[in-house]
Hints:
Helix content: under 10%
Shape: globular
Structural class: mainly beta
Number of helices: 0
Amino acid sequence: QVQLVESGGGLVQAGGSLRLSCTASGSIFSINAMGWYRQAPGKQRELVATITRGFSTNYQDSVKGRFTISRDNAKNTVYLIMNSLKPEDTAVYYCNAGVYSISGNLDLWGQGTQVTVSS
């Protein structure tokens, strides 16, 4: 079974930092784009950042300069380093990946990890 497993969420004070990790496991041939999305209560899920297999990145304007996305292709893992966190960053963060596996092309989502920023 191919799946994404996230870790690293938690509670932090405004101005603090957190690092999220997401690892793909299973019978995987390759992983294309990977990314992080978030969903706050009462709001739609929104893109936070994406990274291609060739390490090109894209960020939502509100996180530029504060968040950094990176990946380790050898470990099938994507990271999100979040600095200068603000209360408005509070949300459930979801990992996403386009995976080519023994089951074909899959658009996978992680289970979500809660990030709470207190003021």
